[in-house]
Specification:
mainly alpha, globular, single chain, three-stranded mixed β-sheet
Length: 380
Amino acid sequence: MRMGNETPSIVTPSEWKPLIARLPWVLLIPVGMLIKAFASRHPEMVERIYSSGLYPFLHRVFSSVFGILPFSFAEILFVLLALTVPALLLYTLIKALLKRLPWSKFAGLVLTIIIAAGAIYNAFYLLWGLNYSRPKLSILLELDVRQREADELEQVCFSLAQKAVQLRKLAPEDENGVFKLPEKASAYFEQIPKAYENLRAFIPVFSFRASKPKPALASIGLSWAGISGIYSPFTAEPNVNVHQPALLILAAAAHESAHSLGIAREDEANFVAYLACMASNDPAVMYSGIMLALVHAGNELHDERPDVFKRLYKSAYSEDMRRDIEHYNAYWSAYKGPIEETITKVNDEYLKYNHQESGVKSYGEMVDLLLAWADRNDFA
């Protein structure tokens, strides 16, 4: 007989005990956040111990393992996880609702997914993500990045346009007079690591071999998402959307390969991609790279001095270049929609979380680096 004012004893079913024992593993997520926060406050330490120490070793290991595959292992793994995890969750939930499976099994699956997410979060920063916390590339290259006069931007734009005109004369085109690679884009991807080898000869910051880009199997899906390429830090694989127009496809490949060198920030990866392409011996790679720089610098000039940009576009761009740009813009306009908008918002939040305050706009901040590079190297 139990008295009414007695506290009832709490009995934990044996089937829930294994779950309780696994709960401490959930702490992987806050621990990873603390490590990330610590790293962001100590960029010099990150550069010395991680970016210039541990990361090159990790990159060489993973690149040598997955680089021999002709396809993107990361892409296949992502698709498998995207299909199997929701399906398994739904299947287990339905069985639990129908009382064919104890709820502890469903809870166990959810807990497993949370723990796995924590492990993936930590692996992301250990394998690559800590590079977001290294000193800015402008510091590593001793570039004077600062607010500059619009005259400097105008001068650089016209200089880039002049060089692009000359390179366009050497570039292949299709029957409509639009820049086109005579072979599949993947046939040119071997040129990207070679370009970085050339770049390394006079910029020692890039002290190890860049990963060779791979064509994404789901390239058309990336177009719907508004993505030109994506880097997998878990497999050291730069994946490139080969469905996009040829104009910037090789620059996109160089951009993703820049990430494999530990250049995490998007503006820096764009700038390094430009440098690498210009260090190439292939006119098609060089043209794609200089057009990447010209498009970003031209967009900035359009915002600063619209009338000057109009004059630049009409007088300094060749007719061939204008056709290439119009074809490029028409392609991406056709893929604008809710999918692209959603992915852009997700990417924006991801970039801001990793200390790129401008979010997706940071892709265009390569112009600051470009102007500082032009100033130091008398590039005009």
